[in-house]
Design brief:
By secondary structure, the chain is of the alpha/beta class. It is 30% helix and 21% strand. It is built from 5 helices and 7 strands, in the order E-H-E-E-E-H-E-H-E-E-H-H. The chain has a 5-stranded parallel sheet with strand order 2-1-5-6-7, sandwiched between helices. A two-stranded antiparallel sheet has the order 3-4. Strand 1, helix 1 and strand 2 form a beta-alpha-beta unit. Helix 2 packs parallel to helix 3 and helix 4 crosses helix 5. 30% of the residues are buried.
Length: 192
């Protein structure tokens, strides 16, 4: 049995890109999508998950119906963003390669609309496609003022979040560090 350490960044909603572009390559089939699912599995305190694109498949194994989503179709990330904002979650995590093709540019338009309307939320864009050796800055950003966080292995998510969010999202980093401290002590400590 493998025990995965959960990361608590506070209550969050997660938008998972399940479009065809998340299929990966011939040398790394399904790598981006499977990395996305691994990242999702280590996040604690997830209020809701929104899959964007994809196709649901059902099969029967040993008399049990199993359903799963696989990468397919276009990317309409903006729909997931609208749903996530409507939940009232302050932390919204988008796991996507950044290729938006179902009304290109609609994600940033939707993001800007809600920010200008006074909705308060933190957006973190995690890009699971980033390949080792790629040029810095080659990760595609969904929003110009939010740099995509390249994570090709879920095991490094915590470190990447700490370093990249330290200046811009202190509450998230504080929550993550307090949660880690509490786990190390084996109990719940009160924080101010």
């Amino acid at each position: 049995t493998i025990k995965m350490n959960k990361m608590d960044i506070g209550e969050c909603c997660v938008i998972v890109d399940a479009s065809r572009s998340m299929e990966g390559s011939d040398t790394r089939p399904l790598h981006p999508f499977l990395t996305s699912l691994c990242i999702l599995s280590v996040l604690d305190n997830v209020k809701e998950v929104f899959y964007v694109g994809g196709q649901y498949l059902k099969t029967n194994i040993d008399g049990r119906e199993i359903s799963a989503i696989v990468p397919y179709n276009q990317t309409d990330l903006w729909r997931g963003l609208v749903k996530a904002i409507q939940t009232g979650c302050k932390n919204i995590i988008v796991i996507s390669d950044g290729y938006e093709n179902s009304i290109k540019g609609m994600f940033v338009h939707t993001y800007d609309y809600f920010k200008e309307a006074g909705y308060e939320f933190n957006l973190v864009h995690i890009n699971p496609v980033f390949a080792a050796g790629a040029k810095e800055g080659s990760s595609r950003n969904l929003v110009p003022d939010i740099k995509a966080l390249p994570v090709s292995d879920y095991k490094y998510l915590e470190t990447e979040l700490l370093f990249t969010q330290m200046l811009t999202n202190r509450d998230m980093v504080k929550k993550l560090l307090v949660s880690k401290y509490q786990k190390l002590l084996g109990g719940k400590e009160k924080t101010k």
